[in-house]
Every structure is written in structure tokens, then in C-alpha cells.
């Protein structure tokens, strides 16, 4: 979540300080002379000011704002007008209305002392997300509190607002360690309730979750604040272990656990605990509404262990699973994916875990140094040990674009469903084509649930193209391909050169041939059976297809023998996910830090491609492309 001052009001809105009627005025220095201020007393002005000043002691009450605004309207020349302006500015900021505060400060710029003006303006800039300007105006308060009762408002309220503004501003400009220090100062304000201290610590953890391991370690150097050491320490430990510095990692781990206990956080499990490198973990839903997904994942993953069990010279790996949908009462660690991962890590000493997506679980695994291979397309902030193994739909669209360009196509058309997915994939395809020197000559959309495409294809035929991209699943392609054939638009084999293709790609009546490209998720043998004659030469990128080739033939054969059906893309990605953990161990990994290092730096020949991860640990190898060839679908070399 993103912190803002309006969220803070829920925590501090009930706080109040009862001041005497004369106290606010006593805190202000003499006001500079101005032609707008009358040194005399307008009728009833002093009494009115004392009343609104008393109300401002409860700055979150609507009466505080209304009373000050009424005073300023009724007494435009009263000598206490500067004090009322300062109070109202603070009230507006505390109530979360920075736009009104900005107008007030601009309209009364000459009435306030420079110290007060800069203070309130800095807070206002922070609420308006102008973080650089906020820091310039408030930098004098990084290590010191403002004067007591600045603006005549309760001291503890203004200090909370100041510390939270500085924390958000520092975090926004990349100074996470300094931002967390400000949150610790926030938590130390004497009148804070437990909920306010808990909020500050939770926000500190959120800041830390967005920082890379190496940056967290750098921020810890020379820093003695408890909050920073507690929330950045686990990532510092992970950075040291990833760099092979086991001794300092162990030392920092012990210090971090002690500090976390001191501030009231659960100590993270040391990631260097003894593990069994032959134990591989799997956490998926095995009960409840998503039980079918868990069963599919389990059958693909199980073949990884079964393969080693049949090899006489191979180590015998074990697959240990947990049900992410199990009720909390079934485990001392609670329910959900995070509890399953912790149970496998602590009780079974697995060297790594495969799981379905869960942001909280991935963040927890990152804090504890557990290698986590996610059956997901992408990771997220703070997921420093998570490796998403599934190619994204955008990556599959990009792979098709690159292959078509490499085959010599220059002019492209897009025929896409009019939905969010279609727009996203079309944009990725267009971007890749244009970066590669190609041109998009037509882009026609159809309703997502369409079964007839006559009008849309008639519009499509007006464009000249050598390749046509259909970013839809195999079920929809089964309808689109025959409709294209009816309009005499046929797929062209990628084996044919483009030197003589210009006439075939021109607009106008008659037979048209072009490369036909589709992401075609879910393609199966049924696709060939139903529309085989209309899709000869079509290039598909579904993530995985059980082609009988050197890469997947053994897997496909064993899968069919065990389950009496063809494997799906989910089966293949599940196999690859567990295969990565097994492969890391077979390459010498004996600790969780070893596994993380191997996964981050090496390439694995999987069913879904030559698996390789980038610096952000997302998958960067191109997905496989398949082509319809006669009565089979084979990998396109």
C-alpha cells in the first residue's frame, strides 16, 4: 500500500490536546508589520480568536477548520490573523487537504514568518508528492524537532506529520535507510498509542520490501537505528550469502534476529540452516475450488522425481508437498501458501520450493532465503528469491514477432480480440515489429466472444501484409482460421522464402497467403483434428506442445504411460519448475544460497525452452515456437 497523510488520520485522529485559551498566542513571535494588519482590536476579534484557538487544539474536528475559516473571513485585519492562518494551514494538512492548504499559504505568503511558512509549505509539498521540494524545505528537521507548538497546534500532531512526510519523501528519492530512521523517530513520539507505533514499523517493512538485497546491505553500513536493522537485516543477510560471505552472513543473521525480537517482529528463519539437498518442496492447492490445478501441477512435478528413481547412478530425490488450501488449524504455522513453505523449510529441511503465485508467501521466502520457483509469469517487489518460470503472454507474442522478422516479413497485420489481453499482446507485437524495422499495415479487432468474423475480415483484406498475428487462444483460432480461408486468406509455410511473396501479399481480390502467427494457448491434438486443413504452416507459441522431438519425447512418452493422456502446458511448466531445483543440486548446490546462485547464473534445458533468468530473476529465454506440419505440430527450428 502507498502511505499518505490521510491514512495517518485513522491512527491519530482521536488524539487531542486541551490548551488554555491564551497558550497559542504566547507561542508566536511578533508578526512583521503589514498594511493588511491593524494593530487595534476589531470588535470581538480577540474573543473570537481565543475560541477558534481552543477548537484548533482538536485539529481533526470539523469545527477546527470551520471556526478558523470563519475567523479569517470576519476579521480580515485583526492582529491575530497570522496566527489564525498558521493554525488553519496545519489543520488543513492534518485533515488531508493539501490543495486547500496550498491556496491558503499562497494567498497569505507575506503574513507568516519564514520559518513557519517553510515548515507548512514543506509539509504541503510532501502531501502533493513534490518530494524533492519537501526535503529542501524540511531538511533542517531531519534530526531535530520543530519549535514547540509551531503554528499554535498540538506538538505531537505536528511531529507525527513531519516525520511521516520526511519518511515518504526520503523513500521516494531512494534514501530508504534514512526514511526508515524517520519512521523510528515517528514511533518514539511520547504520546503515541500502540497502534501508531505498529503502523510505523509496518510501513518500515513495506519500504524495506522494495529494496534489492545489495542496496539493503549498503544501507545498513554504519546505521544503528533499530527499525532499519530489523527490516533491512534479512536482505543484508541474503546479499552476503549470495556473495559467498557465509561468516559475515551468519553474524548479521544473529544480530538481525536479536533486533527483530527487541522491536516486536517475528525473527526470520536463518537461511543457512542445515537442509537436505535431496528434498524438494511443492506447495499447491490440493483441496477446495482449485484442487484440480494442484493435481495437474503435482502430476508434472512428480515425473521429475520419478526420473531419478529409475536411474541407477542418480541420487534419489524426494518430493514433499503441502496443501496451500488446507485450513489453518491443520498446521501449527497456520494455513495458506506461506505456511506451507515455512513448514517444508523448517520441518522437512527442503532445499527449495515450487509454488503457485502468492505475494505474501514470495515475500516471506525472500526474507528467509528460501529458493522459490513460482508457477507464474512474473515476480514482484521484495521477491528476492523467487524465480517465475512461466513465459508471459507478451513474451510469446514478442517471440513470434522476432521469428517472422527473421523469416523476411516486412509488412504485418494484427487481428485481435477487443479486450485487455488482446490490446496488451497487440501492443507488445507492434512494438517489437517496429523496433525491428517492420511496419504494421492493419489492425482490426473483433468482439471477444465472436463466432463469425465476415465483416472484420473484409476490413482486414484492405491491408497489404505478409504476416498476420492473431493474439488469441487455440479455441478462438479454430474459428478464425476457417473464416480467413472462406475469405481466401490462407497461411503460408515459414519454409518458403519471401523473395516472390510481394504479389501474394498485395491488397485486392483473389487468394492471399501470409504467415499466420498465434499465441494459441491451449492448443491440442483436437485443434489439428478439427481445422487441420486450414492451419497448415501456422506458427504457434502456446508455451508448450507435446511434440515428438528430442527435447520432449521422453517426457511425453512417460506422461502418457502414467496418466493415459497428453501433457498440457501446465504439466510441462510444473515439470520444469521442479527440474530447476533438481538440476541445481545435480550441479553441486548443497545449500539454499548455492541454489539461488546456480539458478541466477546458469542455463537449463527444459521442456519449455533453455531456461535462463535475468538480473530481476524473470525468465529471459525466448519461448519455443511450433509449426503445423501435415498431421502433426512440431518445434520450429
Runs with pLDDT <50, length 5+? Answer: 1-40, 268-272, 309-313, 330-334, 500-507
User: What number of structural domains do the residues give?
Assistant: 4
Q: CATH first level of the largest domain: which class?
A: Alpha Beta
Which topology of the largest domain does CATH recognise?
Answer: Rossmann fold
Please render the helix and strand layout as text.
Elements: H1 5-12, H2 23-26, H3 45-56, H4 62-74, H5 81-94, H6 98-107, H7 114-127, H8 131-138, H9 155-172, H10 176-187, H11 194-209, H12 213-220, H13 226-242, H14 246-263, E1 276-284, H15 291-309, E2 318-323, H16 336-346, E3 350-355, H17 359-368, E4 372-374, E5 386-388, H18 393-406, E6 411-417, H19 420-435, E7 439-446, H20 454-460, E8 467-470, H21 474-486, E9 489-491, H22 502-505, E10 512-518, H23 525-531, E11 539-540, H24 553-563, H25 569-586, H26 592-601, E12 604-606, E13 609-611, E14 626-629, E15 632-635
Parallel strand pairs: 1-2, 1-3, 3-4, 4-5, 6-7, 6-8, 8-10, 9-10, 10-11
Antiparallel strand pairs: 11-14, 12-13, 14-15
Amino acid at each position: 500500500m502507498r502511505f499518505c497523510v490521510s491514512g495517518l488520520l485513522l491512527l491519530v485522529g482521536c488524539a487531542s490536546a486541551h490548551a488554555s485559551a491564551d497558550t497559542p498566542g504566547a507561542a508566536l513571535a511578533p508578526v512583521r508589520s503589514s498594511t493588511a494588519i491593524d494593530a487595534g482590536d476589531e470588535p470581538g476579534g480577540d474573543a473570537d480568536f481565543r475560541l477558534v484557538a481552543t477548537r484548533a487544539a482538536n485539529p481533526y474536528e470539523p469545527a477546527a477548520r470551520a471556526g478558523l475559516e470563519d475567523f479569517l473571513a470576519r476579521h480580515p485585519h485583526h492582529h491575530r490573523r497570522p496566527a489564525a492562518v498558521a493554525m488553519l494551514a496545519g489543520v488543513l494538512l492534518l485533515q488531508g487537504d493539501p490543495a486547500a492548504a496550498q491556496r491558503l499559504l499562497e494567498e497569505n505568503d507575506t503574513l507568516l514568518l519564514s520559518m513557519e511558512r517553510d515548515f507548512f509549505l514543506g509539509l504541503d509539498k510532501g502531501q502533493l508528492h513534490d518530494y524533492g521540494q519537501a526535503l529542501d524545505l524540511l531538511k533542517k528537521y531531519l534530526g531535530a524537532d520543530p519549535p514547540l507548538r509551531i503554528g499554535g497546534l498540538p506538538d505531537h500532531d505536528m511531529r507525527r506529520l513531519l516525520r511521516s512526510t520526511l519518511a515518504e519523501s526520503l523513500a521516494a528519492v531512494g534514501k530508504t535507510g534514512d526514511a526508515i530512521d524517520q519512521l523510528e523517530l515517528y514511533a518514539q513520539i511520547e504520546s503515541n498509542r500502540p497502534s501508531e507505533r505498529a503502523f510505523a514499523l509496518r510501513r518500515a517493512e513495506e519500504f524495506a520490501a522494495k529494496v534489492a538485497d545489495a542496496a539493503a546491505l549498503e544501507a545498513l553500513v554504519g546505521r544503528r537505528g533499530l527499525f532499519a536493522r530489523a527490516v533491512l537485516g534479512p536482505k543484508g543477510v541474503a546479499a552476503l550469502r549470495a556473495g559467498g560471505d557465509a561468516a559475515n552472513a551468519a553474524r548479521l543473521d544473529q544480530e538481525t534476529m536479536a533486533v527483530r525480537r527487541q522491536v516486536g517482529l517475528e525473527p526470520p528463519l536463518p537461511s543457512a540452516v542445515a537442509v537436505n539437498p535431496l528434498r524438494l518442496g511443492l506447495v499447491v492447492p490440493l483441496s477446495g475450488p482449485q484442487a484440480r490445478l494442484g493435481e495437474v501441477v503435482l502430476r508434472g512435478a512428480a515425473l521429475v522425481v520419478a526420473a531419478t528413481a529409475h536411474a541407477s547412478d542418480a541420487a534419489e530425490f524426494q518430493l514433499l508437498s503441502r496443501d496451500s488450501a488446507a485450513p489453518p488449524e491443520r498446521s501449527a504455522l497456520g494455513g495458506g501458501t506461506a505456511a506451507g513453505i515455512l513448514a517444508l523449510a523448517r520441518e522437512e529441511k527442503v532445499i527449495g520450493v515450487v509454488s503457485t503465485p502468492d505475494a505474501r508467501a514470495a515475500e516471506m521466502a525472500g526474507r528467509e532465503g528460501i529458493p522459490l520457483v513460482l508457477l507464474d509469469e512474473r515476480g514482484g517487489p521484495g521477491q528476492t528469491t523467487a524465480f517465475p518460470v512461466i513465459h508471459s503472454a507478451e513474451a510469446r507474442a514478442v517471440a513470434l514477432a522476432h521469428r517472422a522478422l527473421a523469416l523476411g516479413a516486412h509488412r504485418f497485420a494484427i487481428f485481435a480480440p477487443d479486450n485487455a489481453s488482446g490490446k496488451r499482446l497487440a501492443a507488445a507485437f507492434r512494438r517489437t515489429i517496429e523496433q525491428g524495422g517492420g511496419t504494421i499495415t492493419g489492425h482490426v479487432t473483433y468482439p471477444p466472444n465472436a463466432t463469425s468474423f465476415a465483416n472484420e475480415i473484409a476490413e482486414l483484406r484492405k491491408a497489404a501484409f505478409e504476416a498476420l498475428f492473431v493474439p488469441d487462444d487455440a479455441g478462438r483460432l479454430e474459428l478464425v482460421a476457417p473464416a480467413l480461408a472462406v475469405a481466401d486468406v490462407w497461411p503460408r509455410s515459414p519454409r518458403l522464402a519471401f523473395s516472390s511473396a510481394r504479389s501474394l501479399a498485395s491488397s485486392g481480390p483473389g487468394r492471399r497467403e501470409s504467415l499466420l502467427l498465434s499465441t494459441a494457448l491451449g492448443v491440442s491434438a483436437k485443434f489439428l483434428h478439427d481445422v487441420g486443413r486450414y492451419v497448415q504452416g501456422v506458427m504457434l507459441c502456446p508455451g508448450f506442445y507435446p511434440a515428438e522431438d528430442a527435447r520432449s519425447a521422453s517426457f511425453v512418452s512417460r506422461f502418457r504411460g502414467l496418466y493415459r493422456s497428453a501433457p498440457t502446458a501446465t504439466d510441462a511448466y510444473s515439470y520444469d519448475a521442479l527440474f530447476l531445483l533438481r538440476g541445481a543440486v545435480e550441479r553441486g548446490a548443497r545449500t539454499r544460497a548455492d541454489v539461488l546462485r546456480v539458478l541466477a547464473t546458469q542455463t537449463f534445458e527444459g521442456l519449455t525452452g533453455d531456461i535462463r533468468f535475468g538480473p530481476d530473476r524473470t525468465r529471459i529465454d525466448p519461448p519455443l515456437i511450433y509449426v503445423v506440419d501435415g498431421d502433426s505440430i512440431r518445434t520450429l527450428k
